[in-house]
Amino acid sequence: MILTETQIQQVMEKTKLAFPNFTDWESNNEKNSEYWGFSLWGEYRPDPEALMPKRFFVTLETYEDKWRGCLTIGQHSYFWSSADFGDAHLLSTDDYDLVEEAIAALKAEILKLFKAFSVSSS
């Protein structure tokens, strides 16, 4: 799916609002050897001053007429993402008709992942 400039701005606003701690937002709006169509990603660095900071990415991408979200570390999600160099695909959503649905599903999956690391006090 390729978006118009107006659609890109709308998706960018919704995504930035949903993930306010992510920065350095970039996008692709063409089908090529790395993307199926429109893709948008932002970066979060828990400790940006570290010598080799960890970099988490939220990616929202299209495939045909559907939206999906991904959480990765090292680099954003695209065709040639590789765990061989410290990159990892941590989770992704199913495909959805609306970007809002993909955002909500991605946030729910992230919450579920991090709840698995929480310790309950008994």
Short key terms for the protein model shown above:
122 residues; alpha+beta; 5-stranded antiparallel β-sheet; 2 helices; 29% strand; globular
Structure description:
With 122 residues, this protein is an alpha+beta fold. Helix content is 25%, strand content 29%. The protein has helices at 5-18, 99-115; strands spanning 23-29, 38-44, 56-63, 66-73, 88-92. Strands 1-2-3-4-5 form a five-stranded antiparallel beta sheet, covered by helices on one side. The mean pLDDT is 90.
Structure described in brief:
This protein is 25% helix and 29% strand. It is built from 2 helices and 5 strands. It is globular, with a radius of gyration of 15 Å.
What topology emerges from the helices and strands here?
Elements: H1 5-18, E1 23-29, E2 38-44, E3 56-63, E4 66-73, E5 88-92, H2 99-115
Antiparallel strand pairs: 1-2, 2-3, 3-4, 4-5
Number of helices: 2
Tertiary shape: globular
Poorly predicted regions are none
Structural class: alpha+beta
